[in-house]
């Protein structure tokens, strides 16, 4: 009888460790990313997941057009979730 209860306690302990090391941080990161996407606006400087810096010049629901470089000719449409960092313009 005691080996069964010991096994249950061990299993609960393993599940708790898995929750706090994998599931909880991932859900926190997902929430943080959703908050970031809610604050993105035209004119913001952004860092993309591919490592490029640019400025948002147009937006739709799930797509942004980002202008890269200073020559104003490199404009690329991309998904909003490709943005990993946002820097608001100084007013």
From TrEMBL:
User: Where mainly located?
Assistant: membrane
The answer to whether keyword Transport applies is yes
Matching Pfam families, A to Z?
YajC
Where does it localize?
Answer: Cell membrane
- Cited InterPro entries: Preprotein_translocase_YajC
Q: Name one GO cellular component term.
A: plasma membrane
Membrane-spanning parts: 6-23
Topology of this chain in the membrane: Single-pass membrane protein
> Keywords in UniProt for this one?
Cell membrane, Membrane, Protein transport, Translocation, Transmembrane, Transmembrane helix, Transport
- Extract one GO BP annotation from the record: protein transport
Give the protein family: Belongs to the YajC family.
- Which PANTHER family does the entry link to? SEC TRANSLOCON ACCESSORY COMPLEX SUBUNIT YAJC
Designated name of the protein: Preprotein translocase subunit YajC
> What is the species listed in this Swiss-Prot or TrEMBL entry?
Clostridium fessum
